[in-house]
Amino acid sequence: MDFKFKTLSLQRSGIHFTYLDFGPPSNASNSESYETIFAIRGLAFHSRDNIPKVIKLAPSFNIALNRRDYPGTSLLTESDISLASSKSAEGRARYLAERGVEILEFVDDFVRREDVPPVSQAAKRKTIGGVGILGWSLGATYALAAFGNIEKLESGSRERLSRYVRALILDDPPSVCFGLPPSKDNCFPALDLTIPQDEAFEFGLWWLTAYFDHPGNALKRDLDNHAYALPSASRVPSIFSVYPRYDNIVCTEPVLRADGIGTMEVLKDEIRENYEKVLFGNSCAAKDSEEELRANTDIREVLPLFEGVWEFGHARAPAFGVVAFWQIQERKERERRGPRKDGNGYVRCQMVPGTNHFSHWDDPEIMIREWKKALS
Question: Is the pLDDT of residue 289 over 50?
Fold first, then answer.
């Protein structure tokens, strides 16, 4: 089946986003409620023929959108790109804020156009309806940017989304998505200077789809006893089933502009600010003042139905995702003050056994079940 992109032009700016969806669940009547997940893709891999497996299986209304510069979505302007590499912290923060607000505007325009059901209460006080925003891999950076800049959204849109948004879902992001340092043994072949330049990036993408045998248990935080570079021979990498559609799902041009790992490094302080604010209610700029830390805006003041953040790790994915999972776990355990007190369930960490970085391709049934936990 050939999956065709649809297009939505934002009412406020005219910027257009391409996206995939298969409509509301087939068993939902006009009067029934259901949950909706907006998925934001990662580096180089975009939505066409990559995410449809989980969209088709979903007992919900799932939408996968292509970020700026990816096929069919408006290109970033030269002014946008210059902000991403600005020497000014304000310029870099503005770049991330604008990308985040665009995603929120897409969600707002979409739920209005498609009459998506808001949050409501069913029998036995069960919460139904509403939306979650999911960031897979490097897409988590932009999902965080959306929540971290919700106050910059136009007031009418902000009020509407306050009746919809329930969860932020982070699926196997690396540490750079949080502005955190990677492990000293971190490996990504695309950045390996000993590999010929014209082969390194594609090899890196292939490597991302492999399975890894991490000694012991991926939940055990042992940086010195981990598979950083060597894939496993015990299960065929996802690339071998993806490959017939490889040209449909991989787009390298954005990586050469403002969507590469280098840009993540330049933006690390601004990315870290969003991570601190959204997950822990803190501000990096205010970290020396307990008064300011406690006064920092709680996301739930703007989104009162927001139930929290779900971080999904994959036990057989490359080590970068497992290490990032540990970093969030450890930080959650240390957090003892402010609006994100340990134990309140605001940040939930779930390691999915047996799955790799492309679990939505190889094991879509598993991932739909896991993602739905965030909206259950």
Answer: no
